[in-house]
């Protein structure tokens, strides 16, 4: 995904361009454990196009991050190095904790949370970031391996119901303990 923004005198960012490329890194990463050469070519084409758009807008600096699919792939670091060579874009692999911090920062920039307690949730292809914010201060953050593509790939891999339930239940239970403590009763389902 490409966002090009311009900072105003007040510090607000105005989005000048917003583009998306459907490369599907997670399909490879979560089914095979690595990014296939064909997918690497698609990624290189997409980032080369993004680079051309950045050049057209005379962008001063590019900040690019790689999240769950790249960080969990056996060849993620090699893919990032190839992208740098092919496009000049330096992709920084970030962990889930950093990803959660960026979610908090982005939401705080877009929404005034200075008087709020907020639960922020961002579900991507490989991970689910959960952030608690009080008065615009990050209180706690978690990154769970519960992204949509990751879960779908596990389902297509003929995982049993019990395996899927444990895959989802265990991280959510740990998250509940961190957020609410052990003494709180779980929320009942109707």
Outline:
The chain contains seven helices and seven strands, in the order E-E-H-H-E-H-H-E-H-E-E-E-H-H. It is of the alpha+beta class and 190 residues long.
Architecture overview:
With 190 residues, the protein is α+β, with helices and mostly antiparallel strands. It is built from seven helices and seven strands. The protein has helices at 25-31, 37-56, 68-72, 76-87, 96-110, 148-156, 161-180; strands at 2-7, 13-19, 64-66, 91-93, 117-123, 128-134, 137-144. The strands form three sheets. Strands 5-6-7 form a three-stranded antiparallel β-sheet, sandwiched between helices.
Strand order of the largest sheet: 5-6-7
> How many β-strand runs?
7
Helix content: 40-55%
**Low-pLDDT stretches:** 184-190
Distance between the termini: 38 Å
Helix and strand sequence = EEHHEHHEHEEEHH
Number of continuous helical runs: 7
Query: Taking Cα atoms only, what radius of gyration do you get, to the nearest Å?
Result: 19 Å
> What structural category arises from helix and sheet content?
alpha+beta
Label this structure with key terms:
190 residues; 7 strands; three-stranded antiparallel sheet
């Amino acid at each position: 995904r490409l966002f090009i923004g311009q900072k105003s005198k007040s510090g607000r960012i105005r989005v000048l361009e917003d583009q998306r490329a459907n490369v599907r890194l997670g399909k490879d990463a979560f089914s095979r454990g690595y990014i296939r050469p064909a997918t690497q070519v698609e990624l290189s084409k997409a980032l080369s196009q993004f680079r051309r758009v950045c050049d057209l807008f005379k962008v001063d600096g590019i900040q690019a991050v790689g999240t769950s699919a790249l960080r969990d792939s056996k060849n993620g670091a090699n893919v990032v190095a190839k992208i740098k060579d092919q496009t000049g874009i330096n992709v920084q692999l970030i962990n889930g904790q950093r990803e959660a911090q960026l979610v908090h920062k982005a939401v705080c920039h877009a929404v005034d949370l200075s008087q709020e307690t907020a639960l922020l949730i961002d579900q991507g292809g490989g991970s689910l970031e959960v952030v608690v914010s009080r008065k615009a201060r990050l209180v706690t953050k978690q990154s769970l391996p519960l992204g949509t593509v990751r879960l779908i790939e596990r389902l297509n891999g003929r995982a049993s119901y019990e395996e899927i339930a444990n895959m989802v239940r265990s991280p959510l239970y740990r998250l509940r303990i961190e957020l609410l403590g052990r003494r709180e009763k779980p929320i009942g389902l109707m």
